[in-house]
Amino acid sequence: MAALPDSIDALLIPALNGWVGVSPVLDRAIVMLSQAELLKGVVTFAIFWWLWGAPADRHGDRRPTLLAGFAAAVAAVAAGKGLAAILPAEPRPLHDPALAIRLADGLPAYPRDGANAFPSDHAVLYVAMAVAILRASRVAGLLALLHALVVVCLPRVVLGLHGPSDVAAGALVGAGVVLALAPPFEALLVRTPLYDGLTARPGFLHAALFAATMVAALNFAPLREVARDLAALAPAAGP
User: Fold this and answer.
1) Number of helices and strands (H, E) in the chain?
2) Non-local CB neighbours of 181 within 8 Å, separated by 6+ positions
């Protein structure tokens, strides 16, 4: 990273990590926020589904906006993963001896697996979804954005799992990709028979969308697990 983000991280990480160790109860509360999918993905996608089922407002049917926004958010996650793969690897702050990160009581082990912490994939996904929701409802979108920054991202910085620059970069990727792709995706839906075809089969649409949002709410962990299992099977299937 450039010198400015590094200097910002060096200033903010110790200050935020200073909350660790104040109290075992506080430590475990912060760890819970960072780990509990019920408080992260479930909240964001509950807002998404609430809007999906809400009656149309003066702007009309929200569902094409939500569907296009979700597709754009998935594209944002892919873009974030692509950036992480090609950019120089940045370790998690808790793996940087110079930062002397305090380890919170109850924090599970995060081994040095070589993964790039920049940009934060949590920030990409949750800010992308907040912007997608914001396009459909200003109030719901602002609530989702507040949740993304305070409940999802802040605990990860406090615990040393990410630096502020990781989160800022992830937020920029998530918001930027959704703002760039959601409008053309929505236009494709409403100006072609695609959306009518999907809504003509509501059972298929809702089953597929529920499955997709459930996987996203788990930060795509099920897909990563399947990919790892398939990779492990490949050598065993060879000659």
Assistant:
1) 11, 0
2) 71, 72, 75, 76
Distance CA 171, CA 1 (A): 16
Q: What is the CATH number of domain 3-103+114-221?
A: 1.20.144
Whole-angstrom distance, CA of residue 201 vs CA of residue 15: 53
Q: How many CB atoms lie within 10 A of CB 115?
A: 14
**Model pLDDT for residues 20-66, shown as the tens digit of each residue:** 988 899 999 999 998 888 889 999 999 999 999 888 777 678 999 99
Q: Which residues contact 59 (CB under 8 A, 6 or more apart)?
A: none
Please give the pLDDT value at position 237.
Answer: 53
- Cα–Cα distance measured from residue 1 to residue 90, given in angstroms and rounded to the nearest whole number: 8
Q: Would you report the helix, strand and coil content of the chain in percent, each value rounded to 5?
A: 75, 0, 25
CA dist., res. 65 & res. 132, Å (int): 8
Does the reported pTM lie above 0.90? no
Asked if 89 and 116 touch (Cβ cutoff 8 Å), the reply is yes
Q: What is the pLDDT of residues 13-24, one digit of tens each?
A: 888 988 898 889
The answer to whether the beta carbons of residues 41 and 196 sit under 8 Å apart is: no
Answer whether 32's CB lies under 8 Å from 117's CB. no
| CA neighbor of 219 nearest in space, from 12, 35, 30 | 35
Task: Confirm if 127 and 171 have CB atoms less than 8 A apart.
Answer: yes
Other Cβ atoms less than 10 A from the Cβ of 74: the count is 20
What distance in Å separates the CA atoms of residue 222 and residue 212, rounded to the nearest whole number? 11
For residue 146, what are its two tokens?
A: 């507040």
Q: Where are the domains of the chain?
A: 3-103+114-221
